Amino acid sequence: MPTIKSKVALVEVLRAVFYDPSQLRPEAARARVTEQVASEFGKLAESLRDRNVEPQRAAHFLHAAVVLPVCRQHRAFCRNTSSGR
Length: 85
Hints:
Blueprint lengths: L3 H16 L6 H25 L4 H19 L1 H8 L3
Helix pairs in contact: 3-4
């Protein structure tokens, strides 16, 4: 017997089939997310420039906002990037 959760998932899939089929293609979803993130970083960089934030301070802020959270989850990545490899 299907659970409510599985019924909800089925309805979401059917909705995607008719209204947004690209949701069913994971590679398209990744590309869409990448484009959205890049757009938001562009807005952030523009905002920092508009506020006359020094480039080094802006870079430090972006590093703390982007790289450090990744390092917390993937320690090997952090070791490799911080050692200059």
